[in-house]
Write the C-alpha cells for this entry.
Amino acid sequence: MIGPGLYEQLITEALRSELDAVDGRLIARPRPLHTAEAADRIALHLSRRIQRTLASVGDNDRVAVGIEVARDLIARLAAIVAAETAEAPVEPGTVLHAILQRRPDGTPQPITEPLIPLLDTTLLTNAPGEPGLLHQLDAEIESADEIDVLMAFVRRSGINPLMASLRRHCERGKPLRILTTIYTGSTEQAALQQLTDLGAQVRISYDVSTTRLHAKAWVFHRRSGFSTAYVGSSNLTHSPQVTGLEWNVRASAARNPDIIDKFEAVFESYWQSKDFVPFDAGEFEEVTRRVGVDTGPHVVLSPIEIRLEPFQERLLEKIELSRGRGHHRNLLVAATGTGKTVMAAVDYARLRERLPSGRLLFVAHRNEILDQSMATFRHAIRDASFGEKWVGGARPQHFDYVFASIQSLNAANLDDLAPEHFDVVIIDEFYHAAAPSYRNLLDHIAPRELLGLTPHPNAATNCRSCTGSATASPPNCDCGMPLTSSG
C-alpha cells in the first residue's frame, strides 16, 4: 500500500485507485503537471513501463516484440503530433556498434571500447572483483575526441599508468585540457611538466584560500554524442584510482545529458576564469615557495611493521590501564631517544579502531618535529598519505588527521574549532604546556583522549590542570593527572 512520503510520480489509473483507498488519516496532495517538465516526466513514465513490459516477454520473442512496440508507438505519435516516423527502428532489431576507419591495407582499424557500455551510468567503488577506476579511465581514452580533466591534485603516480594512452590521444591531434591547483602542495610540478610535454593544455589555480578547487572529474567528449563523465572522490594519484575506498559516478550523456551539459559549461567557465593561468614551471616554483606550501614527508612504507620493545609495550599497557580506570588525560614520560613518538603512534593506531571518528591532532613547536612525527604515524598506520600539516602556509583540507604547530594554532581563531572535533590530541614536549600558547589550546579542546609526551619526569608542573607551582612524580601529578613513566 502507498504510504507517507514525497513522490514525483504521474498519477495513473492504477495509482488513482490506490489513492481512493488510502487511509483516512493520510492526505494525498497532487499538483498539476507543469509544461516545462511534461516531456521529461511523461517520457520517463513510458520508458519505465515499456522496460518492465518487455522484460516480461520471453527471451526468444523479446527483440521482435520490442521492435514492434517501438514502431507502433512512433507511428501513433506521428499520427497525433506529426512526429518524424524515420526514427522508427528497423526490423529486425540492430544496433550500430561503431564506424571504423580503414588501415592502409584496407582492414578496419579497431577502437578500444570502454569497459562500461557507453549508455550506462554506474557507481565505481574500487571494490574487489570490480574493475578499478584507473582501468576504466584508460579504456575511455582511445574513443574520446576531446578530454577535459578537473582535478584538485595531480601526481606522477596517478598519470604514469595513463601516459601511453594520453600520448596517443595527443599525438592524434586530439585536445586534452587539465585544470588543477596547488592546494595542500599535493600537485607535483614534474607531473604537470609531463602532461605539458605530451601536448596537454594545463592551467593551474594558485589560490590556497577557502575558495580553492576540490573537484575531481573527467569528461570524455565524443562527436557521436555518446560522451561520458566521471565525477567523484578520486584525485589523479595512485591510491585513489587503484586501491582507495573511493566512490566515483560514471555518467552517460545519452542517458544523463543534463549532467554532461553542466560539466561542459562549468569547466569552460573555469577555463576562461582569471583564477586559472597556464602552467609555467618557473612560476609554479616561485609561487609554491612564496606561499610555503608543504605537506610534510613523502614516505615509502617499509614492508616491516613497527614492533615495540618490551619496555615500550609496558608503558602502553600502563596508559591503557589508566584509561580503564577512567583517566583520559595521560602523560607519557620517557627519556629522550626511547621512542615516545613511536609509542604514541602505535597507541593511536590501536585507539582509532574503537573511537567514533579517530580524528587526530598532533601538536609540536617545530616543523621538523611535525615532519618526523607524521612519517612515524604513516608507518604505524600503514598509510603513506596519512595526515595533513598545519604550519606556515600549509593548511589542512579535511581536518581529520592534523599535525600542527602551536604557533599556527594560536594564530588561528580557535573559536571556529569545535572543542570535541578531535578524538585524540597528542602534545609533544609537554613541558612547554605551562606557556600561554599551550594553555590557550588546552583550555579550548575537549578530546576523548589527551596524551602528553615529555622526557622530564618532573615536568608535570606543566600539565593541563597545574597552576605552575606543583611538583610531580609518577604515577600522578600533584594536581591528580595520571602520569605514565619509563622510570
